Amino acid sequence: MRHIKRSLGFIYDTAITYPAPITLNYNYNFGVYALTVLALQIVTGIFLVMFYSTNASLAFLSVEHLMRDVPYGWFLRYLHANGASFFFIVVYAHLFRGLYYGSYFYPRRLLWCSGVVILLLMIITAFLGYVLPWGQMSYWAATVITNLASTVPFFGQKIVNWLWSGFSVDNPTLNKFFSLHYLLPFVILALVLLHVALLHQAGSSNPNGWKRSIDEIPFHPYYTIKDFFSVILFIAIIIFFVSFIPNHLGHPDNYIPANPDQTPEHIVPEWYFLPFYAILRSIPDKLLGVVALLASIIFLLLLPFLDRPLIRSSIYKPFIAKLNILFIANCIILGYIGQSPLEEPFLFLGRLTTVLYFLYFFVFFAIGSLDKLFVSLIKNQGNKA
């Protein structure tokens, strides 16, 4: 009974009495969208399990049976598949909004770090789910990505064999990936609850970049009404996408059954992996490519600890605002290069945009350090005067 009261109290504090900054705009709705899509993914995933077979010889056929023979099975499957894309869209937008408004600095460092960990688990979960239809692109993407573990010194091949549960991607691999794909969304849900708890502890950020907003209002009814209408519109967009262009973000080769004896001409993961895939491919050395891939996530994780600027929000720093916009544009270009063939000029552009991706963090740190230096010099001059 005590646990129920605590849970109800947490929900009440989260949705009703939580003091929110009065300056929040619609850019702060992406977290609500992400929670909505997570719930959608868990519910649709539970229903999809009822019709899915984890046998490698039946997995593709079970998905086709769901699509063709089960009433509204096509809608359920497309809702889950496209829901993953929308999940990444809103989480990426949530991340870029945090970069622009400086929402990751103290006292929200742990909040930002928990969000990056959620993103990492999303990437792993989505990759595992991409393998489950056992189509041609699913099979070969699993083979290529799991082989990256072979770069680990001494134990690389053992790790690969453990991931495969054998000596090649086969039925035991499919069973392992299915189990993990079913488990990880609930781990993500637990981390989301932790993320919300950390948000309550540190307080919401705001467009002005203040550590804590001076003017605050109760979350209900002011923001619950705003969020309700925007969530309804967001769900309508998802349903429109699923109903009219459900295959727009997928790869046609994944509607071909997996064939271990025929390698696709061009192996391409889902679009939300493409920026990281471009970073991996831009470096000729396989080990250094994997290191760069991991570093692209680690740098995001360490970003709050690189600097503590005097002015947080980019709306007061025109150069930083342009730098953040260029960073977003660079990530989009990386995504385009990730789906392009390994030939010029894409090889050169991939290496250039990879350098620019990591250069962003160093430039950001340098500018923050110069800001502090100039402010300290001005204070010293004022004290001398």
From TrEMBL:
Any GO CC annotation of this UniProt entry: mitochondrial inner membrane
Cofactor(s) in the UniProt record: heme; heme b
Swiss-Prot/TrEMBL keywords: Electron transport, Heme, Iron, Membrane, Metal-binding, Mitochondrion, Mitochondrion inner membrane, Respiratory chain, Transmembrane, Transmembrane helix, Transport
Domain Cytochrome b/b6 C-terminal region profile: residue ranges: 209-379
Cofactor binding notes: Binds 2 heme groups non-covalently.
Residue numbers binding a ubiquinone: H200
Name this protein carries in UniProt: Cytochrome b
Gene assigned in the entry: cytb
